[in-house]
Design goal:
Number of domains: 3
Oligomer: single chain
Radius of gyration: 25 Å
CATH superfamily of the largest domain: FAD/NAD(P)-binding domain
Number of helices: 17
CATH class of the largest domain: Alpha Beta
Helix content: 25-40%
Number of strands: 23
CATH architecture of the largest domain: 3-Layer(bba) Sandwich
Distance between the termini: 91 Å
Largest sheet: 7 strands, mixed
């Protein structure tokens, strides 16, 4: 088995590698036909393999690199570990209003913070390990390149696997924009930034999408001088503009050099320094940094899979699937980043469950019926589910939008976290929830109530009838529901009720 190292070479990373790509691994001998062969052991692949095996299927799982995929190794897990450290140092330094003295003197040890992340990642990796899937779940785990050799067979490490059904869960990878000189100068992505051993004193982040914004804020809080370069007019260009403005203001307060509406002309390297030249509103500027982080762009991993041999249609967007996740080969399905525009771990999880029902049990479940929430884990977080106002209007749906600022929520005031709001879009004349956005420090935790409501057809009336504990920031959702109820109190209804009450006083 070819060794795969996770950089830097530390005890924590060796433990991680031993779990997700053990060097002493011996692939099993395939016997008979598998109910399901899964290519790719990221979130979608792991859920497919574990679920099929738990239901009694004969399952093979193939991974060429690291089990756990992006989420465990270079995505959700390491990034949130670092974001927690960034929040801790920020809170320590900004607690003067709460009586904390000397916050400006708080020191920060980047090495300790990143070592903590690596330790926790290694601990979490046991859940995705090759040994667990083999010994506890009964899955045949193959480490190597999985390549379709025909419409019902896959080759891996010299062995042929026959299948009744197959699942392509090979994910996506980070890609960089075609900026002159960028490749020659060298750059980081989410796949390499967590291998840093020293904090860059100056950091340029290209792209103000979720990855760029999260890491720009984290490294700024660690002490890097961060320049965030974005081609669009504002950060998080796909989000509610009011939400983006709040994050914009937070970045400015925290000292991030935010450059919007730029066109990057090129990158030059001079020794250890890198200079990024960009054009903005007709003038040319430049910034010199120690590291460049590219936080934009993902490409599906379709190469090297032998998709043509399997009669599977694909393009630059990934593998083509129908609403039931079936490819052009009716015996082959796909799930996760390889075929979805929503490149989130929780979406891959949900799609894998649909795949299992449809591929193994002739189900008719559809991806289009999923309600997909998402969250950008900046401070404050920005979370959304369902439609935006413009989406509803584009579909000919009349919308009523209701907003409650966090400044009207007692717990947010007491926490000193009033920069945010909760917003809901309902179908005009009804309490039917079309979509919702929350901007708050823990918006991702608060959004679930709206997701449950939309998924199950519950309106704002159901939320209004639900008691919410006081004081919590999530009470803002109840306030939205109460605001909706007040809109129902039209002048006519109020006159009728007032007349009734007047009659009662006789």
């Amino acid at each position: 088995m070819t060794a795969v190292s996770v950089l830097p070479d530390t005890p924590e990373n060796r433990k991680l590698a031993d779990n997700v790509h053990p060097t002493d691994w011996v692939n099993p001998e395939p016997t008979g036909r598998y109910n399901l062969v899964v290519i790719g052991a990221g979130t979608a692949g792991l859920i497919c393999a574990a679920g099929a095996a738990a239901l009694g299927g004969k399952v093979a799982l193939i991974e060429r690199h690291l089990m756990g995929g992006d989420c465990l190794n270079v995505g959700c897990v390491p990034s949130k570990g670092l974001l927690r450290a960034a929040r801790a140092v920020y809170d320590a330094r900004s607690g003067a209003e709460c009586g904390v003295r000397g916050g400006g003197l708080v020191s920060f040890d980047f090495t300790a913070a990143i070592e903590r992340m690596r330790r926790l990642r290694a601990e979490i990796s046991a859940h995705d390990s090759a040994r667990r899937f083999r010994d506890e779940l009964g899955v045949d785990v193959f480490i190597g390149e999985g390549i379709f050799s025909g419409p019902d067979s896959v080759e891996v490490a010299g062995k042929q696997l026959l299948f009744k059904k197959a699942a392509i869960c090979s994910g996506a990878r980070a890609v960089a924009p075609p900026i002159p000189g960028l490749a020659e100068a060298g750059y980081l992505t989410n796949e390499t930034v967590f291998s840093l051993t020293e904090l860059p004193q100056r950091l340029a982040v290209i792209g103000a999408g979720p990855i760029g914004c999260e890491l720009a804020q984290a490294f700024s809080r660690f002490g890097s001088r961060v320049t965030l370069l974005e081609m669009g007019a504002h950060v998080l260009g796909r989000e509610d503009l009011d939400a983006a403005v709040i994050l914009h203001q937070a970045f400015i307060r925290e000292g991030i050099d935010l450059q919007l509406g730029v066109k990057i002309l090129g990158v030059e390297r001079h020794g250890k320094e890198k200079t990024v030249r960009f054009e903005q509103r007709g003038s040319t500027s430049e910034v010199t940094v120690d590291q460049i982080l590219v936080g934009s762009g993902r490409a599906p991993n379709t190469g090297g899979l032998g998709l043509d041999a399997a009669n599977v249609i694909f393009d630059n967007s990934g593998v083509t699937v129908n609403d039931r996740l079936q490819t052009s080969n009716p015996d082959i399905y796909a799930a996760g980043d390889i075929c979805s525009p929503f490149k989130f771990t929780h979406t891959a999880d949900a799609m894998a469950r649909i795949l299992l029902a449809n591929a193994l049990f002739k189900g008719r479940q559809k991806v289009s019926r999923l309600t997909i929430p998402w969250c950008t884990y900046t401070d404050p977080e920005i979370a959304h589910v369902g439609m935006y106002e413009q989406d509803a209007e584009a579909n000919g749906i009349k919308v009523t939008t209701l907003t409650i600022p966090l400044s009207e929520v007692d717990r947010a005031v007491l926490d000193g976290e009033t920069a945010g709001f909760a917003r809901v879009h309902v179908k005009t004349g009804t309490d039917m929830i079309l979509g919702a956005t929350i901007v708050a420090r823990h918006a991702g935790e608060m959004l679930n109530e709206f997701s449950v409501a939309i998924t199950n057809g519950l309106g704002l009336g159901a939320i209004a009838r639900t008691i919410h504990p006081y004081p919590t920031q999530a009470e803002v959702i109840k306030k939205l529901a109460d605001l909706y109820n007040r809109t129902r109190l039209t002048p006519l209804v109020k006159r009728i009720l007032a007349g009734w009450l007047k009659w009662q006083r006789r």
